[in-house]
Fold:
Amino acid sequence: MVERSEQQIAVVTLGIADIARSRRFYVDGFGWKPVFENPEIIFYQMNGLVLATWHTPALEEDMKTPDLARPGALAAALGKGRLAVAQTQTVPAGKYARQALQALGHWPAVQGRLAEAESVRVALMLVARGETPLGVVYASDARAEPRVQVVATFPAGSHPPIIYPVAAVAPATPAARGFVRWLAGPQARAIFARHGFHPQD
Structure:
């Protein structure tokens, strides 16, 4: 007896900055033939798997930006995926994420749909690899990762201030004390700002 089963199709979606260059990569490099294409998306059929390469702005528009002020919007934006976060009980970034999600009313809908990672960098990597559709990470880390896009920012009042204190301790040398003073100056502040940090007075 032979049982017949229907082919199951899974779609892998990639955000692409230059879709023409991506097309050359897959068509010329792998010999794949597009089964559908337009200026914003190309589909390639590979056995039971479909690879969809989207122009990044079009992909962002398709996902829609979740309205963090509206409870339920984040869960809806996840679809069937999970939300990447650092461990919410032990890692500072994860604790901040849990507090922000609770403050904005998202926690009940997403607490069972978390992809908890050992660190915030690993959570960021899950998003960068496309293993999760969304993640909660530090703004500075997201800024340093070219494969991710920031789609929403949690209000400052939704979580405790994220502070990195610095101080000269005894017996600090004059050079060490001078470096601490330099960190509070305009040149250091400009460097911090370029990397997503915003020093407070």
Summary: Residues 1-11, 47-55 have pLDDT under 50 and may be disordered. The two ends are 77 Å apart (CA to CA).
